[in-house]
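Why run this: before we spend reagent on co-expression, it is cheaper to look at a predicted model of the complex and decide which construct boundaries make sense. The entries below are exactly what would go into the expression plan.
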Amino acid sequence: MKLLFEKSIPGRRSYYLAPCDVPEYTLPAPMQRQEALDLPELSETDVSRHYSALERLSFGVNQGFYPLGSCTMKYNPKINEKLAALSGFTEIHPLQPEHTVQGALRVLYEAERSLCEVTGMDAMTFQPAAGAHGELTGLMLIKRYHEARGDTPRRKIIVPDSAHGTNPATVSMCGMEVVNLSSGADGCVDLEALRQAVGPDTAGFMLTNPNTLGIFDPNIMRITEIVHEAGGLCYYDGANLNAVVGVVRPGDMGFDCVHLNLHKTFSTPHGGGGPGSGAVGCKARLEAYLPAPRVVMSEEGKLSLQQDCPESIGKVRSFYGNFLVVLRAFAYLTTLGQDGLPEVAKNAVLNANYLMKRLSERFTIVNQGFCMHEFVITMEREAKEKHVTAMDMAKALLDCGMHPPTMYFPLIVKEALMVEPTETEGKETLDEAAEIFLSLYDRAMAEPETMHEYPKETVIGRPDEVRAARHPNLRYRKAES
Amino acid sequence: MNLPKSMVFTKSHEWVKFLSEDTALIGLSDYAQDQMGSLVFVNLPMVGDEVIAGEPLGDVESVKAVSDVYSPVTGTVSRVNEELLDAPESINQDPYAAWLVEVSDISDRDDFLSATEYEEFCLKEE
Amino acid sequence: MGHYLPSTDRQREEMLRALRIQSLEELYRDLPEGLVLSDGPKIPKGQGELGVLRKFSSMAAENRVFSSVFRGAGAYRHYIPAVVSSVVSKESFVTAYTPYQAEISQGVLQAIFEYQTMICALTGLDASNASVYDGATAAAEAVALCRDRKRSRALISAASNPQVIQVVNTYCWAAGYEIELIPERDGVTDLEVLETRLGPDVSCVYLEQLSYFGQMEDAKAASSLTHQAGAKFILGVNPIAAALLPSAAECGADIAVGEGQPLGIPLSFGGPYLGFMAATDALTRKLPGRMVGETVDANGNRAFVLTLQAREQHIRREKASSNICSNQALCATAAATYLAAMGPQGLREVAQQCYQKAHYFAEALATIPGLTLRHKGEFFHEFVTDLPGDAAKLLEALEAQGILGGLPLPDGGILWCVTEVNAREEMDTVVKLAREVCAS
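The model came back. Tokens follow.
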């Protein structure tokens, strides 16, 4: 499809502004831009149709089943969108006087209280704009905690090798050192290895629980105890919270600090890659280090922004984070409440186990026993024997009206496909998906060579990623005339 | 396996070709490039940088992976193969011609494997 | 309780039976004892949609939407064409994940590719990423990417937006990078001091065109000083002013960053916004975050993909220079739609109107006895006034008339902002009230 720039016609435009109603003032010419401003020249019809066409070339949760492991692609309730579009929220300036934004502060205040209850934490910040940003903020809290105690030799963070890549990358951004911890085959923490790894230089331990194989670590209480005994803090990566939300709380497992992906567990849409929100909760002993400002309530119930936080790590983003994302998540929490939230987790786990059971008729499943909200298939044997890889399976699924699972993650499993159906799919959707998976499997066994040709029905075939990376072409350039 | 006898190898899959007593070219073995698949970029040190035997001197990228290149020797980078920046594929095409860096003033070196020993080592890896 | 669970009790029974268990609770049987909450978390019970709508509408009503806004300081009210919200409400844009599967994500990918192209056009630079969280984190990421073994000190202008300085400061504290503030003089960076602080250990210089006080910096001079010292020059750019002022490339910037909110994104109490980030060819592979590139598919047709992923955390893990693994895709699409709708002429008109109206307003305010414009330099759409007496009194008087005045600064000044949406009558009203307050 043509790019906006290829549809541009010199002189074409749309008119949105009223004529200027003040006398003319002109910026002196030498201070003006000389370079042409190469934006497309289009009518509103052009623009509107262009994006309608692009929409048809995209695939969201609203287009179909989206079992993308580790991403929790649940349905995004429409009421949340409606509330986030209220002008009382969209048209307020972040630096308005506090008495004129009591409603917005209430959203932040109540969302903080509720999410603290859900996670077993004492305080929370909404400044982080994404999960990785939350990790960064959380590790900064841990760093500051040790610094404030003068415990500066603590600069190592232990990270299991089954973790998301963001964990080690975040450690480096925090100027700390990663200690990689090998996991057992089930991705769970090897207690003996952990005991060996901790010491007087341990600042903290990052854990995703359930882990990236969808297994809840049965030794979790021992794990956090070992880290605490060594003087470290425990960080909970909330990427997989959907498995246990409302059922167990990271705070009760012994974690000191947690980030939530509000765009996963709490149903806010992913927007094709963002905006999300990586809210960070912590226990009371870390609260003083949270980014400023904090929303506080006076005895009369007035809300205000406490700017003076002398021990704070500082700001990690401007203003108060992705406010409208927090608002959507809070709307979701208000809808589900105490009774609805545990049902989310239980049904997510039920759906995952049911689909796993169905797929285990053919596929090799890494998980033993029940999984949590997701499970992992390995295509290692099929790749070796039939040259059908996880990628081939994923690409074949593209032609079947569903989004494929996450490929090649976690790294500790070869030829991995990670499947997370979420709770917002009915049994019949899971059955249909299972039929598709199983019939593709049969085809892969019978005619393995045909599996490399997919997808066939999509607007493009498999893209040449090597070419894209060798000679990056990151913007449109006008053809030389 | 394609293994020139004029070179020595490391267990981290670099080849070393001594041009004189204390100057050598360093590259990636055929086995290494095959394992990585199509390379898309190389990160190389700058002329004048000190490199230390057993420590990374740069890395090579494929679409889905990145792999450190370990320096087999201690010395100073005296030349860098800048053509690779625009054409990393030449490592895939001819790994023993596509040298990465030249190191001079070599003061220390890893234990090297001969071509035959390296071949055995690679077979075991598989 | 509201919920979004499609399966009926009967379907759930069937699934439980297939798993050979009696209840959902059994799925958690391997969890340590005592951890499972018997009764859910201690939050209010769930409500129906109507109840939720009422609660949130009442909270929205607790906020005051000012019809007239003269406050900017990092978040700007501009006119947003209706087509922008129409585009970013499209369900498959809203509910898609990061476009990993290119074959079914060409729409999202192309939209981002077009956004990247537009950011390159605005800044004059060679490559843009797919956006980062906001302008402040874009600045922090830019400072981080400039650092190398030999150059560990970053110089940040004190005339920058204070929130940007704070965020850069936080990131640098965590990573152990040294930063130094270059003082402000007359509302802009003191270039004489900058010159004395530059040295072979300086990795980069960051300043903003426009300064926090709305003043135009001599970015070209700052850039050449920076380059003489072998450091990188990072320019924080206001994207609306970019239509009128020399581009970041014309100023000699190696990296341009900025807050993209003015490009069609509502104020929304501070977010979601978007940080844009562009760089010269030489730095392309060092840019953090997502990038979309053009390539071809198996049949030679044009195709877009996420590319240069080997830079990123999921591959490079602890060696990645940044942990960012998302972008503000929907906000970037809003910005691209805005720029497409405005076009080069429309955007230039927005910039010109901002400039003209701000100058009209500043001139009118300056006629008030005792009220002075603090800085003498050229400004765009923000400026600072000093007035006799209490700034708070004036701002309260304005508020009583439904006007959100400029931002009170800690030193008693007021930072005003005027954009194309402020009508002449609004400005005249403010001037009239200010005259009364100053006289009383």
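The interface with chain B takes residues 408, 465-466, 469-470 of chain A (CB under 8 Å). Chain A has three domains: 4-25+37-56, 79-335, 343-467. Bring this page to Monday's planning discussion.
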